[in-house]
Amino acid sequence: MDASTKWGVWLTATLVSFTVLEARALREPLTDEKPSGTLSAALRCWLGVQPAHPRRWIAGSLFAGFWGWLCLHILAGWGPNDLPRRRR
Predict the structure, then answer these.
(1) Tens-digit pLDDT profile for residues 22-78
(2) Nearest C-alpha neighbor of 37 from the set 49, 25, 50, 21
(3) What is the DSSP letter of 57?
(4) pTM, entire model
(5) Distance of CA 79 to CAs 4, 6, 68, 83, 84, Å?
(6) Taking the alpha carbons of 14, 63, 60, 56 in that order, is the dihedral positive or negative?
């Protein structure tokens, strides 16, 4: 199995598991004792956005920086593994 197929299988499994977990969380009724179980709600909690925590500015900046780097990495492609390869 080549690398492209392995990454495709991994991405498919990740998207399927996300879809299942998100759909289950969206179907659950919200109460005051039990917050939403969606990924968005979990990220807001982990990043310190809701409930508000002083780390929210640092965590949010790091989170945004990571996604910015990932976009540049995918679009521009740099690093030792992204150099053009010679044909043998």
Answers:
(1) 999 999 888 777 778 899 999 998 999 888 888 899 999 999 999 998 898 888 876
(2) 25
(3) H
(4) 0.69
(5) 19, 21, 16, 7, 11
(6) positive
